[in-house]
Specification:
Length: 134
């Protein structure tokens, strides 16, 4: 199975209905940014939204503007994918969520058999050692 088989286009209405099934949201508005647990994101201003990511261990919704219209794609992870997982430290303003964001890179071979990153997405927020023990 290729990465392309894991991605599908969604209508904006379908996307809005799926948002609560994800764990975290990163939303870029025209004048601000929100990064939090879905349970703490109460109202999404779709008119002001430039781009958004909603994610969990199993998938991601990516919403973005294309020709000034919100477009959505959903990635649903399947078995038998080659995955590399990396952690990136969160900015201090987001340390209340955890210590780092977990990013999965999905690798596929090119026409010469060389592996390349075909898709990249956030999958979780990792807690620091103090938070896990505390």
């Amino acid at each position: 199975m290729s990465i392309k088989d894991c991605i599908r286009k969604l209508s904006l209405e379908d996307t809005k209905n799926k948002v609560p099934s994800y764990d975290y949201g990163l939303i870029y508005y025209m004048s601000s940014m929100v990064f939090d647990r879905i349970s703490n994101i109460y109202d999404i201003d779709w008119e002001e939204c430039l781009e958004a990511y909603f994610f969990n261990e199993k998938g991601q919704l990516h919403i973005y503007r294309e020709d000034d219209v919100l477009t959505a794609r959903e990635f649903v992870e399947t078995e038998n994918l080659t995955v590399v997982e990396k952690k990136y430290e969160l900015a201090n303003s987001f340390k209340g969520l955890g210590s780092s964001v977990v990013v999965r890179e999905y690798l596929e071979p090119d026409e010469d058999g060389q592996m390349y990153v075909a898709y990249k997405r956030m999958s979780a927020v990792a807690l620091g050692k103090e938070e896990q023990n505390g």
